[in-house]
């Protein structure tokens, strides 16, 4: 007779077989077959992913997001019926916009009321039923399905992973009814290779050759990059082609580093002067390379978009011109482009352009660093905090996350995983759990999460600190605390610079005073909690915090007073 296990055990075992390392889970009353499946699989020596108890689903999604950024390997999140899935929604939106694959599962309240193993046993079984539970995350999912028969479980895992990792990548969702998870499933071939794999997303050689010719012939090319360069090889290729062909790279509203901040072709983040004279505009995986209300390429310029979804097909309204679109993963695209440019020789005009652009960019960077220099005032600017942090991290192989936190420009950043900003989706509370996911993936790396005070509160910090302590994750958290919704304030000032709100000392709906004692929240989970109000205090706190985390004594938090 064919050996069987529960569908819950089969699903869990299959996740491990296809390469999932962790299941970030917050359990509920729909989880008995999952929990029994974990125990059953362990008792029979079936290989399983590490199942971690994550006491808030938003943190689970952020950790899966960060783990993928660190490793390139998708992970699984399991939530409790509709209420747990609702808590996953912000993380799903963030992952969807940033092309981060996540295998998202949630239980479904039992359909049956009696007469079947796994039927409803508590009143919330009625209270949590929805006609369309998937609607909570459907627009943020590439694909969704509900497990209907136990024998489907292994094949659905294979299909979910293949679709999630198909370009453009993104989250997928499967709902898991309790009764089905309780049923027996054949245990054969649970360790077989995946039944399907994502197709390669290589750039078309003709399109790459055309783009290489455009670069070779351009008088004033510019590159806009927002999502990095796809990996170490892409990062090196972009540096090489920008240097060889004197192409300024503008990292406007970037969420990942594409070029070292001190590279001679690293241009300021203002698109206007670059667009004014550019005859070739290359947009590398950019959702919004500039603001159409303020900037526009020259009518005679050629505009090229290259990336996994060059037309951003998942975005309903997006009207940026695209004279040439190249659909590919960014890293192989950049490597292919750098190789194709080897067939062209830069002319004398390129050397002249290089000298001019390098001088302008070096001068602009010097102004940024001067503006970030310390002073004796109370509180610090974000730029001052970024520069002080950068100086403290010099020589360390660190990752810095910034969620309305330390800006990129004043920092010395040199490798492809050096810096990440919050997703363009704007789902706050991302950087703290994402940093924990990165630390889990790369325990020897120094990971620093910088965020505004509002973002810290959105992260469910009590839950996050508990996770950091439980998993022994020695991350450094820097809270830039201005007791204010700074992003909201700046948005108001952008639209109404001379309005009534701009003239008041107490702008409505932006204040976060009185500020909690964030250090006390950290100390409640045995983390180091420090406070700084001046540059000298911040430098001292940084030294103490870095010594604490590098000695692996646990997490450390610095609450630093920030000027508006």
From TrEMBL:
<dbReference type="GO" id="GO:0009097">
    <property type="term" value="P:isoleucine biosynthetic process"/>
</dbReference>
<dbReference type="InterPro" id="IPR012000">
    <property type="entry name" value="Thiamin_PyroP_enz_cen_dom"/>
</dbReference>
<dbReference type="InterPro" id="IPR011766">
    <property type="entry name" value="TPP_enzyme_TPP-bd"/>
</dbReference>
<dbReference type="GO" id="GO:0005948">
    <property type="term" value="C:acetolactate synthase complex"/>
</dbReference>
<dbReference type="GO" id="GO:0003984">
    <property type="term" value="F:acetolactate synthase activity"/>
</dbReference>
<dbReference type="GO" id="GO:0030976">
    <property type="term" value="F:thiamine pyrophosphate binding"/>
</dbReference>
<protein>
    <submittedName>
        <fullName>Acetolactate synthase-1/2/3 large subunit</fullName>
    </submittedName>
</protein>
<dbReference type="GO" id="GO:0050660">
    <property type="term" value="F:flavin adenine dinucleotide binding"/>
</dbReference>
<dbReference type="InterPro" id="IPR012001">
    <property type="entry name" value="Thiamin_PyroP_enz_TPP-bd_dom"/>
</dbReference>
<dbReference type="InterPro" id="IPR029061">
    <property type="entry name" value="THDP-binding"/>
</dbReference>
<dbReference type="InterPro" id="IPR045229">
    <property type="entry name" value="TPP_enz"/>
</dbReference>
<keyword id="KW-0786">Thiamine pyrophosphate</keyword>
<comment type="similarity">
    <text>Belongs to the TPP enzyme family.</text>
</comment>
<feature type="domain" description="Thiamine pyrophosphate enzyme N-terminal TPP-binding">
    <location>
        <begin position="7"/>
        <end position="134"/>
    </location>
</feature>
<dbReference type="Pfam" id="PF02775">
    <property type="entry name" value="TPP_enzyme_C"/>
</dbReference>
<dbReference type="GO" id="GO:0009099">
    <property type="term" value="P:L-valine biosynthetic process"/>
</dbReference>
<feature type="domain" description="Thiamine pyrophosphate enzyme central">
    <location>
        <begin position="208"/>
        <end position="314"/>
    </location>
</feature>
<dbReference type="Pfam" id="PF02776">
    <property type="entry name" value="TPP_enzyme_N"/>
</dbReference>
<dbReference type="Pfam" id="PF00205">
    <property type="entry name" value="TPP_enzyme_M"/>
</dbReference>
<feature type="domain" description="Thiamine pyrophosphate enzyme TPP-binding">
    <location>
        <begin position="413"/>
        <end position="560"/>
    </location>
</feature>
<dbReference type="InterPro" id="IPR029035">
    <property type="entry name" value="DHS-like_NAD/FAD-binding_dom"/>
</dbReference>
<dbReference type="GO" id="GO:0000287">
    <property type="term" value="F:magnesium ion binding"/>
</dbReference>
